[in-house]
Structures are given as C-alpha cells and as structure tokens.
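[job 4471] stage=fold_predict status=RUNNING
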Amino acid sequence: MWNVVCIGLKGHQGVCLSEIAKRPDARLVAVYDDDPAALRGASRLPGASAETLITPNLDEVLARRDVNVAILAEDNASRGHNLIECARRGWHLCAEKPLTLDLAELARVRQAITEAKVSLTMLLTMRFEAPYRAMRQAIADGAVGQPLNLSGQKSYKRGDRPAWQQNPKTFGATIPYIGIHPIDLLHFTTGCRFRRVAALAHNAGLPGSGRIDESCAVLLETTDGAVASVRLDYLRPDKAPSHGDDRIRVAGSTGVIEVLDGKVNLITAKQAPTVLPTTPPPNLFGQFLDSLAGGPAHDISTDECFMLTEVVLRAQEAAVRGTWVDIP
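[job 4471] inference complete, writing structure tokens
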C-alpha cells in the first residue's frame, strides 16, 4: 500500500490526488498547507477520507511513520528543505518545480536523495499530454531528420497572482518556474542536452505581478550545436479563450513539427502538412507508483529532475548577470 502525504496545495497536486482516488493500492494519509484557508475544503480533495490528517502544522506530517510517498507542492522557497526532510525519512518524492531556488541547495538535495536511495520525479505535467508524446515519437522515427532549431512558448494570463508568487523570496523567478516546462519538452521530444544559456527577464510592474518578471526570453545551445529558444510571459489578455498559449516547434534537416492549439502539425520535404494522431497518455503519478512497485521506469528520471532544475537556475543566473552561462 502506498501511503501518500501531500505537502502543499499550491501546484499541480491534483494530477496526483485524482490518481490516488482511483487506485486501491494508494491512500492519502495527510494533507498540509501553511494557509488555513487552503485547507478548508481539503476533506473533499480526491483521495481524501475520514482518516486523512488535514493540518497547517508540517511537523505533524513529518512525524508520521506510515508514509512512503510524498507529493510536494508548497511555495518554491520551502521545497528544498522539505525534499531533504522527506528523503531522510525514506519517502519517495513527487515534487513541483523547480526543486530549489539556488544551486547550492540543489546540491544538498541531490546528496540527501542519493544517500537515502529514494526515487524522485517532478510534476512536469506537459510530458504527459498526448500531443507532446506523439511529437516525441515522430521525431524519434526520423520525421524531421536532425533537429536543428528548437523553440517553445508559454504565455499565461497574469490575473492577480497569489501573494507567494509575487515575492521573489518565496517564488524565485519566472524563468525557473515557467521556463522549465518548455525547456523540458525540447529535451523530452528531441533528446537534446544543453551546453550554455543566455537570457533576459523584465518586470514592468503590471497589476497583479508584484516583483515577478512578466516577460522573459531564453536562448540555449545544445551539446550538438543546435539552437533552442524559449519565450515566456504573463501577458496573455484576459479575453483570450484559454489561460495559456503553449507552443513547441522543432525544425529539422528534412521537416518541421509543431504542437499548436493541442494539435501536432508535421510538414516534410516529401509530405504535405498533416495533423498526427495522438493516443491517451498515462497519468504521471500513476506511472511513478507503478515504477516504484517494480514496473517500467518512470518517464521522468531522478537525474533529469536535477539536470533540468540546474538548467533553469543557470538560465536565471544568465538573466541576472547579462552574460552567457555554461551548463556543466
């Protein structure tokens, strides 16, 4: 039986909780958030039962001895410390992103997880959306030849961001928080790794954003010399039909493939524009639990979690310094 705790209600924890509610081999034993208001409806969360501990006291959760998996969806600044504490207790980890807000703490988290020999995944939920999985397969099948120009976009409605997202001390920065999704998808769909990064980030002080950058751009060079670029913003108008406008495009030596409006569009030297079929993806958390039980390896490895967090932290460093930053 997987006894799961949810530490924080500030992210994509619903992906995990909905899966717990479906599985006879998992139960939600505790829910924590530092905001009592967020806990008022916690008893009705998917997977919750009359036995689920609901508390604003994290020590109560960490004191439990019946836990083997933790979901971490707290504010970004608290995550590194919580990852270390959970790892020391031998709990497997499914964490929001980024893992930490600086490289020194990332090294401490890596050491704790390595020493504890627990598994770690991140809530890189876009990997488990059908279009990106179809795109990955098409590229692996050689549909566009050698990937040469990679690009991604995430554009969100800003709205009135919660207080913790308006403060760099608890949020960090937009590049690590949002940028990790398209950067991961470029890695996931093509298999590329990154050599160096440059970036720009700007806060215009627009209503609802606090001190967080509303507009960012990231330029990366892959280890095989391809060009990758990512656009990020909180500038999508309120009248837009959806909260987000996500795009991933890979131009290769023999074709171009792009996910736009949830469709996978392919055009090649030999094939007219076509929309590729997709198949329903697995659940991120369900696949993680199955891997812990001895099933196939999870699609997001522990090493990838650390690699991708380091890439976005170095991208933020590049934005602050105004220079290229190497990625070891």
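[job 4471] summary: The CA atoms of residues 157 and 238 lie 6 Å apart.
[job 4471] exit 0
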